[in-house]
Amino acid sequence: MRAQPRLSAIFKSASAADTLRLAGLFAGGVKGGSVLSLEGPIGAGKTLFVKGLAGALGAKKLPVSASFNIMRTYLAGLKIYHFDLFRVAPEEIENIGLEDYLGLEDGVSALEWAAPARQFFERSDFTELVFFLSGGDSRRVLARAHGPESRRLIERVKKEWKKK
């Protein structure tokens, strides 16, 4: 059986409200065990996206930048396991317990600055989101599917995003 080519999509966000809407669309399609890898420069909207994800999933307490806390859990319909790996060296990743949370069926793992931890989830199905600054409040978000569930998720979000 031939593997399907990797699906990718670019979402253009003109404002913080657009980024929150995009996060809400992703929240509408994630399942327990979903892994979202978020990359991009400081200020590109990664934490805002996680905040929108948590809000759309029903969290009462919304995420803040987790840079001083490597991981925070937010209670919602699905728990949000929010990791901020900005200050974590690649050789320290094994010691933070990341693998204990990835794929848990009661939640969604959202990893900011995920590159150093990629070895822990790259063989599983995950959604990669890369945030780019486009001037002013505008952003571009590149979404890449790394498996059938993430492919289904991105296809769903693309369809809903066009309904703007």
Layout of strands and helices, then pairs:
Elements: E1 8-13, H1 16-27, E2 35-39, H2 46-56, E3 71-74, E4 79-84, H3 98-101, E5 107-112, E6 126-133, E7 139-146, H4 148-161
Parallel strand pairs: 2-5, 2-6, 4-5
Antiparallel strand pairs: 1-7, 3-4, 6-7
The gyration radius over C-alpha positions equals 15 Å
Mean pLDDT: 90
Shape: globular
The CATH architecture assignment turns out to be: 3-Layer(aba) Sandwich
* Contiguous runs where pLDDT drops below 50 for at least 5 residues: none
Main β-sheet description? 7 strands, mixed
CATH C-level class is Alpha Beta
Give the H and E element order.
EHEHEEHEEEH
Structural class: alpha/beta
Number of domains: 1
Counting DSSP E segments of at least 2 residues, the number of strands comes to 7
| Helical coverage, percent range | 25-40%
Short description:
The chain has helices spanning 16-27, 46-56, 98-101, 148-161; strands spanning 8-13, 35-39, 71-74, 79-84, 107-112, 126-133, 139-146. The protein has a single domain (11-107, 120-161), classed as P-loop containing nucleotide triphosphate hydrolases (Rossmann fold, 3-Layer(aba) Sandwich), CATH 3.40.50.
Describe the structure in your own words:
By secondary structure, this protein is an alpha/beta fold. The protein has one domain (11-107, 120-161): P-loop containing nucleotide triphosphate hydrolases (Rossmann fold, 3-Layer(aba) Sandwich), CATH 3.40.50. It is built from 4 helices and 7 strands. It has helices at residues 16-27, 46-56, 98-101, 148-161, and strands at 8-13, 35-39, 71-74, 79-84, 107-112, 126-133, 139-146. α1 (16-27) packs across α2 (46-56). The longest helix is centred in the last third of the chain and has 14 residues, at 148-161. The N and C termini lie far apart (37 Å). The mean pLDDT is 90.
